[in-house]
Design goal:
single chain; 554 residues; alpha+beta; 10-stranded mixed β-sheet; 12 helices; 20% helix; elongated; disordered N terminus
Length: 554
């Protein structure tokens, strides 16, 4: 959504360039840019737009919390996309389904809002398959038969928006469960049986009957107290529907103080199986539902809509920070134990993801699961996410995206799969030590006996100068005596060089055979004696009972 601002700035600059005045740039009556200036892509959203909505904190005002919910609801409905290829899925309950109960979305046609259905998905999952530059949504591979998980409906779109700040709801199973007992609090003075868990087919618990029992003015006064981010709901048995209110109620009173229901209204944003159309950058966009649609109090009363809010928005409950955890918090779990682990959370889970990264940092495996909103705060078992077998290993990270919009770590450890594909929660490393040499360092190679994963650690420096090794070839022998003799025979102290007939003679630090800090004839004597009496069997140089050593005598 940020692209429009940049294009407008560009056009204003061009207007100044050609005319010297910014005032002549004309816009269409609907606020869109003239078609002649368009670039061929509608006003798409991006992950940055989602991230721009702040995470709720306990110190925020109620107005700030309400704005978070409204912004997320608008962004859900502002999600403009076109399928990478024709998308057909089953949604028999939708009023716009064909005779076979199928919904059809055509490649090249732009749509807004998630497709309608019972998948209870959110933008957190939808954007995983979305190209914000083109608006192409590549989700055809997710359709299994005629089932499509990345859909939502009127109630779930409202509840996901409220879940940006709210964890006081206890159950959601469609509009029929949006009652006070489940945490959906009535707004205003109207009354109903607050103890019911869901609205049944009995006349006294249906929405229209509740409105009629309370009376027109009581319901009007209730609508008048509705603020942005509150909702209105009509029960399932009466063509149930839920909407989020995006502005405070607009109220007009008559001379006697009563409310004029025909002139007072609520402005809402809603997901629906019904379709509306709008224009965006020269494209006709088919909207799943409506954005900023007005409903008069009289219409809401006639249709049986009840206003509601949640505890965090009316101040009766504080906002909580999101938390996720496992029963076992260790990072070395067996395969069976990890797959049986349950994710606990104080907010609804939108999606979970497993990422497996190799030792070199490359992505080995990734799996993402969308979590339905059939129950709020339902514990999630990792067996739905972790494959039964996978011939790969590396660093595993499991994360959960929750209602607040945050992605939080659930588990982090090592994944090790053996040759048969069985998972182990840790590697079984065997260490092989490579000793240092004079010129190369030492190290230890660790290799997993299960999966073959290997790495090198415990590195040590090279041993450096070998006492008596005058020529630096890594061994002590007569060549070192010759090297020392030549060096000393032709050494010029004045020029500090040792050159004879164009040949330069040099010594390595090991030429100091006796370790006195000098290279001279004493080193030749020490080397000769060492080599004369060296015993290959014992590895020592012994002159009678005396050991001849290279380097400083101990």
């Amino acid at each position: 959504m940020k692209r429009r601002a940049s294009i407008i700035s560009l056009l204003l600059c061009m207007s100044l360039l050609f005319t010297g005045s910014p005032g002549i740039l004309a816009f269409a009556d609907n606020g869109e840019l003239p078609v002649a200036w368009l670039d061929g892509t509608p006003e798409t959203i991006s992950p940055e737009d989602l991230d721009a909505i702040p995470v709720a904190t306990p110190d925020m005002t109620k107005d700030e919390l309400r704005q978070i919910c409204v912004d997320f609801m608008r962004l859900q409905q502002g999600f403009i996309w076109t399928p990478a290829e024709d998308l057909d899925y089953l949604c028999a309950s939708a009023s716009t389904a064909d005779e076979n109960g199928l919904h059809h979305y055509k490649a090249g046609q732009y749509y807004a809002g998630l497709p309608y259905g019972g998948g209870s998905a959110t933008l957190y999952s939808a954007l995983d398959y979305y190209d914000p530059d083109t608006g192409v949504w590549d989700v055809s591979a997710l359709v299994s038969g005629t089932a499509f998980p990345l859909t939502n409906d009127c109630g779930t779109s409202v509840v996901w928006s409220l879940s940006r700040v709210c964890n006081s709801l206890s159950k959601f199973g469609g509009t029929v469960t949006m009652t006070k007992k489940n945490g959906f609090l009535p707004v205003g003075p109207y009354q109903y049986d607050f103890e019911i868990e869901k609205y049944t087919a009995s006349e006294k618990t249906l929405s229209k009957a509740i409105c009629q029992t309370n009376g027109e003015q009581v319901m009007f006064e209730s609508y008048a107290q509705v603020r942005k981010a509150d909702g209105i709901v009509r029960r399932y048995q009466e063509n149930g529907h839920a909407r989020m209110v995006v502005e405070d109620a607009f109220v007009v009173r008559k001379g006697d103080g009563t409310i004029d229901g025909a002139k007072s209204y609520l402005k809402t944003c809603e997901q629906s199986s019904g379709k509306s159309t709008r224009e965006s950058y020269g494209h006709t966009v088919i909207q799943n539902g409506w954005i900023d649609k007005q409903y008069t109090f009289s219409k809401l009363f006639k249709d049986g809509y009840l206003p509601f809010t949640v505890a965090e928005l009316n101040g009766s409950e504080p906002v909580e920070r999101a938390q996720v955890s496992l029963s076992n918090t260790g990072s070395d779990l067996s395969f069976d134990a990890l797959r049986k682990e349950v994710v606990h959370t104080n907010y609804p889970i939108a999606k979970v993801a497993l990422t497996l990264t190799g030792a070199d940092g490359h992505l080995v495996y990734k799996e993402t699961k969308n979590v339905k909103l059939s129950k709020l705060y339902a514990d999630y078992t990792l067996s739905d996410l972790i494959p039964a077998s996978l011939s790969a290993s590396g660093h595993v990270l499991i994360e959960a995206t929750v209602g607040t919009g945050e992605t939080l770590p659930v588990y982090e450890g090592e994944a090790c799969y053996d040759a048969s594909g069985l998972f182990h929660g840790s590697h079984d490393y065997i260490a092989v030590v490579t000793d240092p040499t004079l010129t190369t360092g030492g190290y230890t190679t660790y290799t997993c006996s299960r999966c073959g994963n290997t790495y090198v650690a415990d590195e040590t420096e090279a041993l450096g100068p070998l006492w008596g090794d005058a020529n630096g070839d890594g061994s002590v022998n007569n060549k070192d005596i010759v090297c020392l003799k030549n060096y000393l025979a032709y050494y010029d102290a004045e020029g500090q060089t040792s050159v004879h007939e164009g040949v330069t003679y040099s010594l390595k630090s090991g030429a100091d055979a006796n370790g006195d800090g000098k290279e001279n004839n004493a080193d030749i004597v020490r080397l000769k004696k060492y080599l004369m009496f060296f015993d290959e069997l014992t590895g020592k140089s012994m002159d009678g009972e005396n050991e001849i050593v290279l380097g400083p005598a101990s």
